[in-house]
């Protein structure tokens, strides 16, 4: 399964974009800094924007040097062509994501 990595900034932006139909099998969001941060994660339909109606994590506290796993094990998130997973955080240069997926 391929992986995609993303850098999370204070502005919501895509950390993964589906090409065709894909199933996300793993998503982690890691705070690699020495300070606590909060983060938001959104699942956004193609050509949509991040907002309250597509929030899957809201203001989640990620402690310094800690990781939060959103999708793991047997869970899957099915995305259509152009759908995105977007994220933002309370600090720049502190948070990264890793997404594992497969194409249908």
Verbal overview:
This protein is an all-beta fold and 104 residues long. It has one domain: Jelly Rolls, CATH 2.60.120. The chain is 0% helix and 59% strand. The chain has strands spanning 3-8, 13-17, 22-31, 37-44, 55-62, 66-71, 77-79, 84-89, 95-103. Strands 1, 3, 6, 7 and 9 form a five-stranded antiparallel β-sheet that branches. The radius of gyration is 13 Å and the shape is globular. The mean pLDDT is 95.
Can you tell me the overall shape? globular
Number of strands: 9
Average predicted confidence as pLDDT? 95
Instruction: Please report the first level of CATH classification, the CATH class.
Output: Mainly Beta
Structural class given helices, strands, pairing?
A: mainly beta
Q: Radius of gyration, rounded?
A: 13 Å
Question: How much β-strand is present in the residues?
Answer: over 45%
Distance between the termini: 12 Å
The H/E string reads: EEEEEEEEE
Number of domains: 1
CATH topology call: Jelly Rolls
Low-confidence stretches: none
Features:
Jelly Rolls, four-stranded antiparallel sheet, 0% helix, 59% strand, 104 residues, mainly beta
Lay out the secondary structure.
Elements lengths: L2 E6 L4 E5 L4 E10 L5 E8 L10 E8 L3 E6 L5 E3 L4 E6 L5 E9 L1
Antiparallel strand pairs: 1-9, 2-8, 3-6, 3-7, 3-9, 4-5, 4-8
């Amino acid at each position: 399964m391929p992986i995609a990595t993303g850098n999370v900034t204070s502005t919501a932006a895509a950390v993964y974009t589906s090409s065709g139909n894909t199933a996300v099998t793993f998503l982690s969001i890691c705070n690699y800094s020495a300070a606590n941060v909060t983060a938001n994660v959104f699942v956004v339909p193609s050509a949509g924007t991040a907002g309250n109606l597509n929030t899957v994590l809201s203001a989640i506290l990620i402690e310094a040097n800690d990781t939060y796993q959103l999708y793991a094990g047997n869970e899957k998130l099915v995305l259509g062509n152009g759908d995105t997973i977007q994220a933002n955080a309370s600090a720049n240069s502190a948070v990264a994501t890793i997404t594992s997926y497969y194409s249908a």
